[in-house]
Amino acid sequence: MSIVTHHRWQAVPPQTVADAERPRGWASEVVTIDLRGAGVVLRRRKWWLLVPLALCAVGGLAGAMSVKPRYASTVQLLADPRELQVVRPDATLRVQTAELSASDAETTLGVLRSASILGKVVEQQGLNADSEFIGEKPSDNPALTALTALEKRVAVKRAERSFVVDVGVWSLDAAKAARIANAIATVYLQEEAAGKLEAAKRTSRALALRIDELSVRVQEAERKVAEYRSRNDLIGQTGSLIPEQQITEVSKQLVTAKARTADARARFDQVQQLRKSPLSLGDLPDAVGSAVVAQLRSRLADASRVEAEQATRLGPRHPDALAAAAQLRDVRRILDQELARVARAAEADYDRARSAEESLSRNLDRLKSLSNESGEAMVRMRELERQAEASRAIYATFLQRAKEISEQQGIDTSNSRVISPAVPSQTSSGLSRAVVLAGATMAGLLAGAGLALGRELTDSTLFTKAQFASASGLPVLGVIAPAKASPRRPKPELRALVFDDPASPLAAVAFRIMDLLRPRGSRQVAGQTIQQAAGQAARSVLFLSVEPTFQRTQLAFNLAAAAARDEGRILLVDAEPSGGFTDALVEAPQHGLADVLARRCTLDRAVLVDEDTEIGILAAGGAGAAQGRPSMDQLQATLLSPARGFDRIIIDAGGPATNSSAAPLAGAVDDVVLIVTAGVTRRETLQDTLELLDGSRSRIRGLIVA
Predict the structure, then answer these.
(1) For residue 592, is it within any domain?
(2) In the predicted model, what is the mean pLDDT of the chain?
(3) How many helices (DSSP H) and strands (DSSP E) are in the chain?
(4) How confident is the model over 175-194, as pLDDT tens digits?
């Protein structure tokens, strides 16, 4: 029985690879796009890019063909809100703050775009009968239609920090655009002058009526002040009562007297302190700074020095020493007498200052008593005076303003004028057809790129090795090309590429897996591995796939072929109910895996040997699909333990989601290799598969991307 045609064995050394790092757990779901691979993403999502680009390009071409040339003209106005003051002599222009000027300038922009200005322009220029502004179809209200069209064509802007306003108008006719712009400026200046004249007339009439009322109010207020002052005998200078003036003067004198008393008391205290403990060194206080005391103090110092020298040199009982001591006592006595005199003089000064202070204090209390008696009357009189003064101020202001407005009614005080009139434009403005087409194309390109990248972000389909590694947390052991069916064979052919094409990606991956899963330190001993010699169980490898793919079976067969050449006896098991390598057998076997698991036959009876590769073949079995989910103990007892005579067991088992025996097999074997399909396998499908294999995750060695 043969799976493939006979091939000549070749010595092909396996590729040396480093052991893949064991996964530490399933990776969390993170959706990212590497901007450096944006070109790859756009090529993969090319239809998401090309369809919006084509639609926008077609729309841009249609829009470009409908674009008509426009001509814009601009008139410059000096819209200065400050008025010429011909009556006031202090200035020719009304002074305004920066905030008020900016507000007035913004108001000017609104007036220029108002319906009152543009409506007069529509009427003057006959735009209500112009087909460009009212359209080809007749309108029920052509004036309103023309006004609406004109509002859309007028642009008003102000230069920063200035009163210069640019009024721009566009039209299909250059001369018409200039004519309308100049008409807007003319109507604005006329309306501004008429509005100011009308406002001045209204203000003058209102002020005339108000002035008569204010005149009567002022006379009444002044009469009340005079009558109240006369009735309460409130007479004083500079608008205040005499007692109040006296209180002010006495208060000032009392402050001076208190200061003088404090100085005298301080001088007296210093002299008294000096008498109690006379100073022998240092400067005298200001209180006793007289020439006599200074002279006596100098003599005291000299006498003290002489007495000390005589007592030291001659002894305290020597006549000269006794004379020096007597002289020192005389100087001290005279100094004490002088200090006593100074103290008496300071005490007399202190008594006089205190008496003057007490006299002023009594006088102030008396004046306050008098002032309190007439205080209430004075409060009322001051209130009446304030009311009279306010009435006079308002009356004077109204009277002056009324005269100014009356004089200015016949004078144009506006400072606004046309700086630069509008002239017909020689070149068209607005968007050109090329710009419209280029803009639409660029918009389509950006929209398509955004949609493509957005689709890449929202689509959970995995394409690259990095995406598979990130989604699973497992190393990617290799990438193999998808299997292709020939016209003769609708199903791809099962081939031993490790012999036919050792340099192919599939053969390279098979060699890499074989090297990765080879037991540590195993070597050949008399045709047997040390593992087999020690009686250990054969190392088992399980191939699973997330999506149905023939590449799983192809890879399992090539790994079996390579292992048969290098390691010895190999058992290849088809654990997939349908779609495995059983269909590639030349003859259908009588027994298979389903029969072994159901104990209808032993493993030795069910295994067939391929004549070319000497690989043991265990087919799926006819009743495999009808069997339930086997347990790991059942798999160990019926399949793995009886297979001790083989060096390696390679199992092809489909996917955990479709094959009920896949999960138990993953828990029973030594190594698991998971096959995924680029562009087909989705992130959630891969993670669901890993969840099904959660109990066997330590046995999963990595992923193969097909």
Answers:
(1) yes
(2) 75
(3) 21, 14
(4) 999 999 999 999 998 888 88
Encoded tokens for 373 = 């008696």
Q: With a cut of 50, say whether residue 95 has pLDDT above it.
A: no
- Residue pair 477/20 in contact (Cβ under 8 Å)? The answer is yes
Most confident of 157-171, 187-201, 206-220: 157-171
Tokens of 399: 């009277």
Which residue do the tokens 């009526």 mark? 209
Burial of 468 (0-12, 13-18, 19+ CB in 10 A): buried
Q: How many CB atoms lie within 10 A of CB 151?
A: 12
Q: How confident is the model at residue 291 (pLDDT cuts 50, 70, 90)?
A: low
Q: Count up the domains in the chain and report the number.
A: 2
CB-count exposure of residue 610 (10 Å: 0-12, 13-18, 19+): buried
C-alpha dist (Å) from residue 587 to 2, 33, 67, 562, 590:
8, 50, 76, 23, 9
DSSP string, 103-157: HHHHHHHHHHTSHHHHHHHHHHHTGGG-HHHH-SS--S-HHHHHHHHHHHHEEEE
Predicted local confidence at residue 277, as pLDDT: 62
In a domain, 162, yes or no: no
Please give the structure tokens belonging to residue 413: 């005080």
Question: Does 544 lie in the same domain as 453?
Answer: no
DSSP state of 414: -
Asked if residue 150 is part of any domain, the answer here is no
Bridge-partner residues for 478, per DSSP? 704
Q: Which pLDDT score, from 0 to 100, does residue 663 have? A: 86
Whether the CB-CB separation of 469 and 476 falls below 8 Å is answered with yes
Q: E strands along 409-466, which residues?
A: 417-420
609 and 510 assigned to the same domain: yes
Where residue 609 sits, what CATH number does that domain have? 3.40.50.300
Strands 700-705 and 524-525: unpaired
Burial group, residue 511, by CB count within 10 angstroms (0-12, 13-18, 19+) = buried
Distance CA 509, CA 706 (A): 11
Same domain assignment for residues 438 and 547 = no
What pTM, to 2 d.p., does this model score?
A: 0.45
Are 691 and 669 members of one domain? yes
Based on the fold, state whether residues 647 and 501 are members of the same structural domain.
Answer: yes
Same domain, 475 and 621: yes
CB-CB contact of 550 with 674 (8 Å): no
Strand order of the sheet with strand 608-609?
Answer: 476-479, 700-705, 671-676, 539-545, 648-652, 570-574, 616-618, 608-609
Residue where the block lists tokens 């890993």: 690
Residues 564 and 662 in one domain: yes
H or E segment and range at residue 574: strand 570-574
Strand partners, 168: 74, 155
Give the 3-state secondary structure of residue 702. Answer: strand
Residues 614 and 546 in one domain: yes
Segments forming the whole domain that contains residue 441: 41-67+431-457
- Give the whole-angstrom CA distance, residue 625 versus residue 634: 17
Q: CA-CA distances (angstroms) from residue 119 to 183, 252, 401?
A: 11, 76, 35
